[in-house]
Design brief:
Elements (H helix, E strand, L loop, with lengths): L1 H17 L12 H14 L4 H10 L12 H4 L9
Length: 83
Amino acid sequence: MDLKIIFVYCLCDDALNLLNIKNDKQCQMSTVEIMTTGIVAALFHGGNVQAARQFLKFCNYILIIVETYPIFCLASPQFNPGP
């Protein structure tokens, strides 16, 4: 499992470098760490992102894990797509 996680991280990092995608100065987690967390969740935790986050933090793969917020907190209550 360790080699697979490292492979996923390196693959994501290489892809972002190839596409010339840079991190924002204000970010606390890099884009590659976020991508790795999602892929690890899909591969090893049945899509459970929270379990993947806890696993990656516990094993010290990712040192800073930013707290997540429920998706309904991000949506504006006035948003009405309409017909």
